[in-house]
């Protein structure tokens, strides 16, 4: 996926809030039109396969929400529900069947899959051209090398937001707090690809506030309510809060940070809506490529 935003996505803020809800709505609208166009031209609607292991209520809700959003955008869903007792080999087989099925264009394996399963092995059974959630080693390497491929959806959504608000990253000091494989690490790689100077922070970082105070761009990806004090935000910095904690609270102390930031994402309504929008967009892109048509053509 390209992280360069179409002109129609450019957003002029009326205050210093980055409106992820509005941007995601526009991106989903474009994706819906692309899915309809694909159906008209090929007779095939894009199809996202979702794989769920067990019945964890949060995971069931996430998967259902993704299926509903797919339906709204003209993307078909295929659901594979597996018992919590499934073995790694059985899960790998189920994913491999979807990878080989020409009627499935994208695959989403809902995380977590259970402690007894080798999650990496299951993710790696996703064919790279169907990895619309950007979870395979192939996708991660492509992101790192700056090569075409599917990006991890939340980092991809963050980059779209920054681009839509014309945040020039070249030469800026970006401090990424969090280093998970789906969020912190890839967003740092994407920021580096846009010529930011990137510092990663994590639970062993010795003086997080001092590093945050030096940041032109802060990306919070931790899952600790209000870990980042607004008073540590450099005046004029851009603050992206991917954290989502109980009570609709982010990782940044929003009210105080907002007084100092030039741009800031709200929680909710900032990064969250962008994640699913990127998933839908990448599914239609995958289908377009697999059906032999040029993307964006
Ligand atoms: P994760 O896998 O638990 O990773 C959390 C990261 O934060 C780890 O790298 C950890 O460091 C670091 N960390 C923990 N405590 C810290 C501290 N006191 N100081 C500095 N760093 C600390 O979480 P994740 O999956 O990346 O998710 C992070 C947050 O983003 C969560 O709130 C999650 O709900 C949210 N999220 C939102 C979306 C969305 O669509 N908006 C998508 C995914 C995740 P170590 O590596 O040293 O343990």
From TrEMBL:
It holds the Pfam family THF_DHG_CYH. It comes from the Bacteria. It catalyses: (6R)-5,10-methenyltetrahydrofolate + H2O = (6R)-10-formyltetrahydrofolate + H(+); (6R)-5,10-methylene-5,6,7,8-tetrahydrofolate + NADP(+) = (6R)-5,10-methenyltetrahydrofolate + NADPH. NADP(+) binds at residues 178-180. Its EC number is 1.5.1.5, 3.5.4.9. The keyword Mitochondrion does not apply. GO terms for biological process: L-histidine biosynthetic process; methionine biosynthetic process; purine nucleotide biosynthetic process; tetrahydrofolate interconversion. GO terms for cellular component: cytosol. Residues 152-290 form the Tetrahydrofolate dehydrogenase/cyclohydrolase NAD(P)-binding domain. Catalyzes the oxidation of 5,10-methylenetetrahydrofolate to 5,10-methenyltetrahydrofolate and then the hydrolysis of 5,10-methenyltetrahydrofolate to 10-formyltetrahydrofolate. This is Bifunctional protein FolD. It comes from Streptacidiphilus jiangxiensis. The gene is folD.
